[in-house]
Amino acid sequence: MSAHRNSGAQAAKVFNFKLVLLGESAVGKSSLVVRFVKDQFDDYRESTIGAAFFTQVVPVDDSTSVKFEIWDTAGQERYKSLAPMYYRNAQCAVVVYDITQSASFEKAKTWVKELQRQADPDIVIALVGNKNDLASRRAVTAEECQTYADETGLLFQETSAKTGANVGDLFKAIAKKMPLDSQKQNQRTGRNSSSGPTRPTVDLSGSEAASTGNCAC
């Protein structure tokens, strides 16, 4: 009986956090989250319409895990007006750019400014330079982005959805930044829970546009 009580006392605590991915189209947001959630990669992915929803659990330590409820938003300009619906009430955000496209880094800066102006003031933001497997075509230096991240209080990581490089490290770093002690009301004990009131009323994840032929790696 004592052993049974001890086992229950050591059950892992799971804390839920809403995470949103933002960035231009074709920077690899969907590929990044699919690599994280499913450990898969497709050279050509169809463009997301509206947003797609995923969940994944990240162990923080032996007794605590974070469950990310992930909204992968569309990068096309025509869907930009929908973004606030997805980052509203988000506790963390991943803003992605393509290291081979300097314009995508400038767009990422715009997303960061919008989040810092309109999202939760305590939101944890990670700036992510994707496609570092294409370093020979690099247009944005890691040093420049690290400096910007330091100046604006962001986490920074370069990743490759194609090879999986640093993808797990990225989400583990975000999980460790989350305020677990103040989120005990969101504890779950192994059950798959929904986003509840943080989930937008419009879910467009069921439909996708035709493939553009652009690699989203």
Automatic annotation (TrEMBL):
Main localization of the protein described in the UniProt heading: membrane
Top-level lineage group: Eukaryota
SUPFAM superfamilies according to UniProt: P-loop containing nucleoside triphosphate hydrolases
A single MF term (Gene Ontology): GTPase activity
Transport as UniProt keyword: yes
GO CC terms, sorted: endosome; plasma membrane
CDD domains referenced in this protein's UniProt entry, alphabetically: Rab5_related
Nucleotide-binding keyword on record: yes
Name of this protein: GTP-binding protein RAB5
GO biological process: protein transport; vesicle-mediated transport
PANTHER family: PTHR47978
InterPro entries for the chain: P-loop_NTPase, Small_GTP-bd, Small_GTPase
Protein keywords: Cell membrane, GTP-binding, Lipoprotein, Membrane, Nucleotide-binding, Prenylation, Protein transport, Transport
Compartments reported by the entry: Cell membrane
Topology in membrane: Lipid-anchor
Pfam families: Ras
Biased composition regions of type Polar residues, renumbered to the chain: 182-198, 208-217
Region (Disordered): 180-217
